[in-house]
Q: What sequence folds into this?
């Protein structure tokens, strides 16, 4: 397979195959990375003068957090003016009304996100590495400098303009995690088009729904994706989708593998076409509240929602959270392994790191290809200073022998990040002790597509402040969570309370609307608890004001009047040394209303009898939570139904538990649909 860099070098000098000036700079950058260092200052006041010099006079983290809540105009106004480059500076910091679902930040400001992510860093150091493409093929990273990213982005920008893409048009991007997808995103940004990246694993039907929802006339895709050594037929999927999308006029096809794919009348090879255009392109002047991108949330319940984020507020928030949560320093190599198709990929692979002028990782593969040491071999080879991954990956990897981790040098790592569903205790301990050798802080972050960036995280905090396992703990600057009684709608004060997690004040990174349906946006997030942003999650506020996420409110089980968060039960089950991963759902119970059904996967080489194991697991839950929380139904299964991004599709498990397996809905997005048949058969056998 021809490398992307080799294919493009004919016309853009894209990725050099041998060390040149830019590659040498990359190697120097990695060699100079501050491997395994502690926080770079002993006191918070000294630290903040470096990290957030705008507030160097502040002495403590608590004081700074209080300032961000008491005077958000001052706090965010300073950061907005200093951290972004503007064509015209804003004159009003915010105009928000949560009761109405109205959010506006940095009003009357004019800027462009591509200028902030590429151009200003290019002007300072064009040969600095912007992207490290860790291809699916092992040990095959390629480096893309800010100069090369700028040229590539501008060629695509000019190509899109030539083919009729205008400011405000929507462009669907359905591609693997490669430099080309980043350039395509930033090219849309450059000209003022709105990009909507669709995870390159969604079915043709799901893709068509998103194309039609955006009314997009342009689609950018690849011939194929490569993931875990397997090819995924992206172009054929697009062909099937476009048949249902009369709005589409042009499909650009990037050659990831170079294999033959069907090409129709509206199809154009991307690399060949973009080579005709200049590497310089004037940037559109965008209003701070112009839409930057939309990202469709999963359609597992109801129709997918096109969550819209805007240029200024989102960009600032992604950059500030990236810098302060992960302790990012200018010479670091930042490694977020999320797919570009999700919000984590947008905020912490692309926009957050690039607005900070960082070197950021593009990880195309899976954590077990070609073996369970893939992440840690990559850490050693690329000298990553931070790694940001999902609990699903951790629970998968801890099933394997620790030698897969310990055989590689991980001393460059300084911060371990986690994002997604709640991180159970066992995975947290394994991550801390085995991966981080007990020396790296774990930032177990909580946030959503709708929030744009991290809202609750153990860091930033006072120097040396405690980190508790399995909870994000501390709200970020400008964020004031509130726990609300779901029955009365009243805010619950003090510690030791459970309820619905809401946020009391707006922050710059939050979504502005659901594309084409602001009424749904208001009803979903602002009507349930008027005056608050409703996250849809439950929370437990512990002593000290620390927050633990208990799971989705629709993942709450009501057993004999007792409300139980499924994540809490899963956390207890996962502490058993034989358990690799669990998924808990409710099922109809003739006496209790709902019962607890646990699906459990085991680690390798477990020898305990199933009957004894189930008894131990029930005892564990009784001890950790309460007798009424113990699962009445437990299925030991070889796998769980997961999407290709690793998300457990719990609606399928609920259907099976409720004996409704004949009506499972669309399962085309599952990585391995055959798992469902096994679970159904196991369930039927349990009931005999």
A:
């Amino acid at each position: 397979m021809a490398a992307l860099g080799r294919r493009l070098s004919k016309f853009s000098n894209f990725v050099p195959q041998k060390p040149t000036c830019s590659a040498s700079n990359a190697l120097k950058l990695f060699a100079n990375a501050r491997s395994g260092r502690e926080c770079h200052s002993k006191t918070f006041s000294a630290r903040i003068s470096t990290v957030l010099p705008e507030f160097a006079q502040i002495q403590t983290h608590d004081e700074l957090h209080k300032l961000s809540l008491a005077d958000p105009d001052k706090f965010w106004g300073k950061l907005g003016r200093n951290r972004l480059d503007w064509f015209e500076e804003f004159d009003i910091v915010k105009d928000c009304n949560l009761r109405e679902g109205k959010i506006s930040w940095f009003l009357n400001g004019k800027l462009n996100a591509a200028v902030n992510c590429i151009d200003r860093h290019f002007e300072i150091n064009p040969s600095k590495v912007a992207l490290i493409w860790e291809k699916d093929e092992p040990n095959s990273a390629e480096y893309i400098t800010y100069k090369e990213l700028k040229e590539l982005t501008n060629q695509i920008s000019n190509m899109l303009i030539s083919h009729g893409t205008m400011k405000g048009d929507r462009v669907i991007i359905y591609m693997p995690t490669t430099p080309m997808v980043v350039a395509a995103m930033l090219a849309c940004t450059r000209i003022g088009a709105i990009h909507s990246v669709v995870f390159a694993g969604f079915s043709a039907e799901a893709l068509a729904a998103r194309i039609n929802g955006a009314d997009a006339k342009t689609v950018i895709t690849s011939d194929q994706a490569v993931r875990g050594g397997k090819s995924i037929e992206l172009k054929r999927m697009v062909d099937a989708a476009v048949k249902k999308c009369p709005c589409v006029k042009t499909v650009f096809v990037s050659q990831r593998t170079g294999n033959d794919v069907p090409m129709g009348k509206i199809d154009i090879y991307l690399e060949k076409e973009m080579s005709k255009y200049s590497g310089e392109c004037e940037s559109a002047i965008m209003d701070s509240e112009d839409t930057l991108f939309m990202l469709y949330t999963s359609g597992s319940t109801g129709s997918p929602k096109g969550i819209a984020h805007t240029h200024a507020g989102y960009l600032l928030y992604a950059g500030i959270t990236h810098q302060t949560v992960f302790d990012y320093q200018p010479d670091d190599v930042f490694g977020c392994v999320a797919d570009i198709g999700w919000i984590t990929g947008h905020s912490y692979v692309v926009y957050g790191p690039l607005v900070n002028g960082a070197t950021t990782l593009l990880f195309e593969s899976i954590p077990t290809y070609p073996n369970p040491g893939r992440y840690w071999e990559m850490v050693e080879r690329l000298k990553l200073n931070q790694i940001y991954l999902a609990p699903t990956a951790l629970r998968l990897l801890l099933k394997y022998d620790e030698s897969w981790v310990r055989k590689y040098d991980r001393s460059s790592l300084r911060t371990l990040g986690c994002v997604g569903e709640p991180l159970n205790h066992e995975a947290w301990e394994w991550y801390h002790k085995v991966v981080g050798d007990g020396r790296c802080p774990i930032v177990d972050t909580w946030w959503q597509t709708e929030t744009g960036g991290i809202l609750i995280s153990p860091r930033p905090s006072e120097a040396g402040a405690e980190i508790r396992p399995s909870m994000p703990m501390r709200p970020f600057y400008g964020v004031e969570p509130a726990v609300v009684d779901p029955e009365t709608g009243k805010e619950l004060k003090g510690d030791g309370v459970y309820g619905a997690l809401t946020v009391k004040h707006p922050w710059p990174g939050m979504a502005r609307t659901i594309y084409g349906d602001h009424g749904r946006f208001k009803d979903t997030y602002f009507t349930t608890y008027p005056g608050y942003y409703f996250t849809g999650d439950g929370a437990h506020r512990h002593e000290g004001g620390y927050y633990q996420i208990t799971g989705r409110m629709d993942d709450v089980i009501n057993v004999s009047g007792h409300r139980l968060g499924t994540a809490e039960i899963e956390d207890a089950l996962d502490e058993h040394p034989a358990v690799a991963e669990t998924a808990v759902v409710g099922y109809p119970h003739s006496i209790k209303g709902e019962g607890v059904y646990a699906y459990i996967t085991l680690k390798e080489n477990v020898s305990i009898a199933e009957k004894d194991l189930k008894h131990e697991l029930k005892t564990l839950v009784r001890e950790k939570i309460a007798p009424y929380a113990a699962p009445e139904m437990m299925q030991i299964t070889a796998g769980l139904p997961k999407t290709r991004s690793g998300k457990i599709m719990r609606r399928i498990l609920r259907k099976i538990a409720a004996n409704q397996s004949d009506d499972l809905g669309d399962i085309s997005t599952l990585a391995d649909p055959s798992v469902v048949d096994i679970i159904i058969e196991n369930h039927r056998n349990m009931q005999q």
Observations:
- Residues 1-42 have pLDDT under 50 and may be disordered.
- The two ends are 52 Å apart (CA to CA).
- The first helix runs from residue 4 to 12.
- DSSP finds 22 helices and 31 strands in the chain.
